[in-house]
Write a structure and sequence with these properties.
399 residues, alpha/beta, seven-stranded mixed β-sheet, six-stranded mixed β-sheet, 11 helices
Length: 399
């Protein structure tokens, strides 16, 4: 359907300001009227200001607080296979520029950051893991899969469209192999010269925390001759980077037996001994409080403590607890690499939590580096919510 035939959504006066500043969401309260025929959930609409100016094209969903997800500020945009192939081509070219040739695992599509709201595609050694989180992308699913196949020619595409975001959009979960036949239980990837086994079908997120790649490289740089504690270690990726950076000993702690089994395997395929760099199953909170072993570098990369706003108070306490315990057990001159991936904990709040933990631990710290996701996770300048991964590299300087 040509864009001129899309239904028109009229905004209240002044509600176009966020869009004009680059924010890709319009909330239901911004809508004054919708011309007939009324759009179905997930269908494209044209966006019109109160003075009659056409502002662009987006996906509409009456079931979501985010009523319109903006696709383009060109009101003549037609959402079809050539449109999607163009967006995918732009995303591919960006990754070709910013990724090293010894890395074959990366985020190909980062939702709003690549102009495709609600679509995430991670690629692992030629196998793509696709996740659709919005009604608009669900509406265009067949065109998207066709466009990805034609533009990227992947070995296989696995769909893992699941979670709370789909439920908020009125969508059921879907997990299936779309093409490519039998997928191995573990896919081996390369990242900055290191090797990892990834469970692309049932691992957390899409199997690997691709977004932490540059932060793992930073950890490698500062881990020489260090005693390292990697908390919430999952696949052991941070641990392996630290071992490759010359760490004396790396202890990995996670509550998942299956994740720890994978971490030990990843240590071994990179030539490191799990006896020298032990992987322990246990509660990280308790381990931080009770273990007597000192550390020169502690890495805190927990799961999202705040899945929604109602979880915020509990999440703040959780982040405060682990950072307080970590700072107390660091050696003088030690390093803390700490993260939050909770959307509802912004960078300013996270910084205040860690500052409070340092004060309670009676430790003076330097901020050495602000950490975030890698360049294959681009974010639109006007969309602060897209910067979900917040991190700090701190150094204890008590004297």
């Amino acid at each position: 359907m040509k864009s001129s035939l899309y239904p028109i959504v009229h905004l209240h006066k002044g509600r176009e300001k966020s869009l004009l500043k680059g924010h890709p969401w319009l909330f239901s309260g911004a809508i004054a009227a919708i011309d007939s025929p009324h759009p179905g959930n997930g269908e494209p609409v044209r966006i019109c200001s109160s003075n009659g100016s056409m502002l662009g094209v987006g996906f509409y969903n009456a079931l979501s607080d985010i009523a319109i997800r903006v696709l383009s500020t060109d009101p003549e945009t037609t959402v079809d296979v050539p449109f999607w192939r163009g967006r995918i081509s732009m995303a591919r070219k960006l990754r070709e520029k910013v990724l090293s040739p010894d890395t074959d695992a990366f985020r190909l599509i980062n939702a709003e950051g690549d102009g495709m709201p609600g679509l995430v595609v991670d690629q692992y050694a030629g196998i793509q893991v696709l996740s659709i989180g919005t009604a608009g992308m669900e509406h265009c699913r067949n065109e998207l899969i066709r466009s990805l196949t034609e533009e990227m020619q992947p070995k296989a595409i696995i769909e893992r469209s699941e979670g709370k975001s789909r439920k908020r959009e009125g969508l059921a979960d879907r997990v299936e192999v779309l093409n490519g036949g039998i997928i191995p239980e573990r896919v081996e990837i390369r990242e900055n010269g290191l090797r990892f086994q990834v469970d692309v079908q049932s691992g957390q997120k899409t199997g690997f925390f691709i977004d932490q790649r540059p932060n793992r490289e930073t950890a490698r740089l500062i881990s020489s001759d260090a005693d390292v504690l990697n908390c919430f270690s999952y696949t052991g990726a941070f641990s392996i980077y630290c071992a490759s950076g010359g760490a004396k000993r790396v202890i990995s702690v996670d509550s998942s037996d299956s994740a720890n089994k994978n971490a030990r395997a990843n240590l071994e395929i990179n030539g490191f001994s799990p006896e020298m760099h032990p992987v322990r199953t246990g509660d990280v909170f308790r381990f931080l409080r009770e273990s007597p072993e000192p550390s020169d570098l502690i890495i805190l990369d927990p799961p999202a403590f705040a899945q929604s706003r109602k979880d915020l108070d509990r999440a703040v306490r959780g982040y405060k607890d682990i950072n307080l315990s970590a700072l107390r057990r660091l050696q003088p001159g030690g390093w803390l690499m700490t993260f939050s991936c909770s959307n509802h904990v912004d960078a300013d709040l996270f910084g205040k939590i860690v500052l409070g933990a340092a004060a309670d631990a009676d430790r003076k710290v330097q901020t050495v580096k602000i950490l975030g996701a890698g360049p294959d996770h681009p974010v639109r300048l006007g969309h602060v919510e897209g910067s979900y991964l917040k991190g700090l590299l701190l150094r204890v300087c008590d004297r």
